[in-house]
Amino acid sequence: MIFTAYRRHFFLVILLVALCGHTAAGQTDKAHDDSDLQAVIVIMRHGVRAPIESETRSSAYNAQAWPNWPTKPGVLTPHGAEALHLLGEFYRSRYHPLLQDDSCKHPRLYVEANSTQRTIASAKAVLSGLSPGCTVEVHSVRGAFNPLFSPSRSSAVDQQHIKAATLGRMADQPQWFTNAFARPLEKLHRILIDCQGPACNRSVPDFRSVRVENGIPVSRDPAIEGPVALGADFAENFLLQYTEGMPMSQVGWGRVSRADLNDLMQMNTQYHDFMLRTPYEAQVAASDLAAHLRDTIISASSGKPTPNELGTPNDRFILLDGHDSNLSWLGGLLHLDWLLPDQTFNATPPGSALVFEVRQNRSNHRSTVQVLFISQTLDQIRNLRQLTGAEHPSVAPVFVPGCSSSAPGYACTVEGLSKVIDSAIDPRLVTGSTR
Question: Which residues pair with 320 in a beta bridge?
Fold first, then answer.
């Protein structure tokens, strides 16, 4: 009875917060009235790209051909680049105090991207809106391994422990994991095969029970690769179709509504919660990024160089362009959760970002860090909506367990966030800075 009363009180508080959600940004801004912005670190996913092989599976399970794309698989599309340009304009408007020098001589920007075409091109697209007309170097080595964005290759990594940590979250029963997603998997199977006419081949294998290996169908073993992995990838394909602006008649062959997309992407994010946000997996994959983030924040707040900072103490806007996995890994490592108004929990849509705002209090000169998750809505990406007028991207404050305060915005002290990162990472997996 006591628990029931407590639960009702808790959900009443949550409801009141939700009803007042439209004022959250204003309340956060008020919390900044007595502080100055020192620096911003943006860790983002690349923009809309053409699907890759894992998201089409060589058309082994779909009755109709996948739609055509304007670029090669995995490459940022022109539509995706334009959406990121609009996002860059928003960042320029939001952080104009840090970007006041329009001469391009001292842009105070540091930009680094992972080594793929889509991440490098995405960084350049954001820069076209963030710092128009300026030539800003995008630090990256095409085709090279970058530990900042990748799981560690250190011999200290226990691969068997990664496997055990993930399987342990699903009771060491991959089939049970599959059973938990029976309804969205059934919906997805119908989307893949439910067509008519001469262009429809309904004899294709059911991906839930059959695995096509070198063109030969064999029984699917969930312990090797379960159907949820394919389901998450196919859902991502439909998300890319939608955000690319394809007609709804082409999104899932006309069989995926906006509501269907939400359901399928919930399976996608839950799958990635297991695969990417499991604590040991996240530690292996995000320790290097988190350590560089920590040192960059310390450098920005103190004005002094640190061993693993990104850029220099004079840089005020640091942009890191990676992948959805980087956001999930870092979120899993630091136990960060977020919610967007139009998507499922911990979604990582194209162009979305974890943003770390470093601020200094004018009275006591202490620096704090506010963590945000910033993302365009799917319809803003799809329709290429302007973001600097009446319409803005979603800006969600993120609570950091172990250091956030209860004040609006949930800011951490720099020291508090540093301690959280120190306790989360494995120092053996951190590479020295070569930048």
Answer: 43, 112
Nearest to 86 by CA among 351, 319, 339, 322: 351
Q: How far apart are CA 173 and CA 171, in angstroms?
A: 5
**pTM of structure:** 0.93
Give tens-digit pLDDT for 116-140. 999 999 999 999 999 999 999 999 9
Which three-class secondary structure state does DSSP give residue 210?
strand
350 and 268 in a common domain? no
Convert the pLDDT of each residue in 208-223 to its tens digit: 999 999 889 999 999 8
Same domain, 329 and 314: yes
Q: What's the helix, strand, coil split of the chain in %, to 5?
A: 45, 15, 40
Contact predicate 111/123, CB 8 Å: yes
Same domain, 97 and 174: no
First to last CA, the chain: 59
Structural domain span for residue 193: 159-276
Helix or strand holding residue 258 (H, E):
helix 258-276
